[in-house]
């Protein structure tokens, strides 16, 4: 029986009665407490950016790449193999381009249409994977 018997004992709890296994949850709780404490410390150091409704860690910066005229209410975003931004929202998948080099998108092309929009995009070489509308699609 060997391995299968051992799995059955662990599942029934008989092998977990030793003190060695009681120590593990205490260590896990301690690690979680330290992690929570550190996250609270780092949250206190965030710099609010009221105009954009976000807070950032010191040293980071944020800017608007595309306004609502090109891509409104974005659900998901990725970069394609050429470094172009690809976004999805209700009804569309679009590629956004910065043709004048100012760091903001100024042109968009409709890549595909969707019913509800996607909750995930992933570019892999020349393929674009889209998760939404009830499935995972490859373009």
Fraction of residues in helices? 25-40%
Q: What is the overall shape?
A: globular
Largest sheet: 4 strands, antiparallel
Class from secondary-structure proportions: alpha+beta
Question: Strand-residue fraction?
Answer: 25-35%
- Enumerate how many helices there are, as a single number: 2
Q: How many structural domains in the coordinates?
A: 2
Report the C-alpha radius of gyration, rounded: 24 Å
Name the quaternary structure.
single chain
Output the helix-strand order.
Answer: HHEEEEEEEEE
Q: Between the first and last Cα atoms, what is the distance in angstroms?
A: 50 Å
- Low-confidence parts, pLDDT < 50 over ≥5 residues? 1-24
Give the mean pLDDT.
76
Count of DSSP E strands?
Answer: 9
Strand numbers in spatial order across the main sheet: 3-4-5-6
Task: Please write out the topology.
Elements (H helix, E strand, L loop, with lengths): L1 H11 L6 H26 L2 E3 L4 E3 L19 E4 L5 E5 L2 E6 L9 E6 L5 E7 L2 E6 L2 E4 L1
Antiparallel strand pairs: 1-2, 3-4, 4-5, 5-6, 7-8, 8-9
Could you characterize the architecture of this molecule?
The chain has helices spanning 2-12, 19-44; strands at residues 47-49, 54-56, 76-79, 85-89, 92-97, 107-112, 118-124, 127-132, 135-138. The longest helix is centred in the N-terminal third of the chain and has 26 residues, at 19-44. 27% of the residues lie in helices and 32% in strands. A 4-stranded antiparallel β-sheet has the order 3-4-5-6, with no helix packed on it. A 3-stranded antiparallel β-sheet has the order 7-8-9, with no helix packed on it. The chain has 2 domains: 1-62, no CATH class; 76-138, no CATH class. The protein is globular and about 45 Å long. The protein is of the alpha+beta class.
């Amino acid at each position: 029986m060997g391995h299968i018997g051992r799995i059955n004992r662990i599942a029934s709890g008989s092998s977990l009665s030793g003190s060695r296994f009681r120590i593990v949850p205490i260590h896990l709780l301690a690690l979680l407490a330290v992690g929570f404490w550190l996250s609270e410390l780092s949250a206190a150091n965030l710099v609010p950016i009221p105009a954009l409704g976000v807070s950032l860690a010191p040293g980071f910066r944020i800017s608007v790449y595309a306004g609502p005229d090109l891509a409104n209410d974005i659900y998901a975003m990725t970069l394609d193999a050429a470094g172009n931004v690809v976004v999805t929202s209700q009804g569309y998948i679009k590629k956004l381009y910065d043709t004048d080099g100012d760091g903001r998108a100024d042109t968009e092309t409709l890549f595909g249409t969707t019913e509800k929009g996607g909750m995930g995009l992933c570019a892999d070489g020349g393929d674009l994977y889209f998760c939404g509308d009830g499935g995972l699609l490859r373009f």
